[in-house]
Amino acid sequence: MPADPVGGAGEAVDLLAEGPDRSAGSDRSAGSIGVAGSAGSVSVGSVGSVGSVGSVSVGVARRSGAARVVLFLLAVAVLAGSVAVAVRIGTADVGWTGLGRVLGARLGLDVDPLPPLMDSLVWDLRLPRVLMAALVGASLAVCGTVLQAVTRNALADPYLLGVSSGASTGAVTVVVLGVGASALGVTGGALVGALLSFALLLLLLRRSGLDSVRIVLTGVVVGQLFTALTSLVLMASADADTTRAVTHWLLGSMAPARWNTVVVCAIVTPLGLAVAWLCSTALDGLSFGTDTAASLGIGVRHTRALLLVVTAVLTAVAVATVGAIGFVGLIVPHGVRFLVGPLHRVLLPCAALAGAVFLVWTDALARVAFAPREVPVGVITALLGVPLFLLVLRRRGEL
User: Fold this and answer.
1) pTM score, two decimals?
2) Is 325 helix (H, G, I), strand (E, B) or coil?
3) Kindly report the CA angle at 223 between 219 and 360, in degrees rounded to 5?
4) Distance CA 85, CA 68 (A)
5) 326 and 382 in contact (C-beta within 8 Å)?
6) How many CB atoms lie within 10 A of CB 106?
7) How high is the mean pLDDT in each 10-residue block of the chain (399 residues)?
8) Helices 259-278 and 127-150: crossing angle, nearest 10°?
């Protein structure tokens, strides 16, 4: 049954905001309510799964608050356990007792410290690396979730939209040309590159609109452009050793992680997540389209600009520290959305936890799969992400 574009969409957003009780009641009376296609259209049909971003199924959204809390606490416990186990994994085995002795000694407890070499291995190399993987995974998952809502495109993530490539170009330019020697200089260069690439993407799409296929294709073009610029900078200005090191870094690796970069990510990532979470209601509205969001009193232009800057900052910090890691922002939000539903106040923190767990274990696999040689973690995420990318395209009828 067609509905008024403003009133119908407003009722649909209210349905999402009021939670499972009203959703269940609506499901009993009408089967399911979905919002799809153009902004504000409401259709009645059978219970289904979530399709593209901006379409909502009551069957998926109907989750009790208690179940969500339990799932969130379980994710926190899984993340803590994953970090502890991943610190022990590597070519040199570290037992639980050894790990406890390292942490105890650093906390000033009365324990026998490990030999200096083993202590440095755990404290200076493995622990920062694992924590960095958790922070970067959370950042990229949040970026993917936000971009999928803002662009109403289920295939959006920083890697596919060229943001990671732009950040890589900025960071490499700073490193090779020596514009800034500090981590802040590299991060600043990555941020400028990320903002430039996203601005170029929006400029190219200003007349064609935010059609999902056009966004992906244009993002690929922008990404290739900045990848070519990165190669040009390397070939024109870098020596052989720098080129080799930067090329390996660009594939994505947690090996450069140290405590100073972990501290930067530990500050930026929670702030970015907090800003995105405070905009969760706006993200729910934007997932229905800009017209619908505006009719609900959301300042579309300013909110979208704020969220795009947040994703650019998070992507820039991640790329500046560990290189470009693709598909995390594509894989994680879809899986978490299936488990907890589309409400962003629940989806964003759960996606951050799931992204952290995913990248911690992916990095562990990259370390031990071909030991003693290490595979860049970006290679592993691409191998896992490409099949899912094709699966999402097939489900959307675009393949």
Assistant:
1) 0.76
2) coil
3) 95
4) 25
5) yes
6) 14
7) 40 42 37 36 36 42 65 88 88 80 82 82 90 94 92 82 86 77 69 85 76 76 91 81 78 86 92 93 86 83 85 86 87 87 90 94 89 85 83 69
8) 30
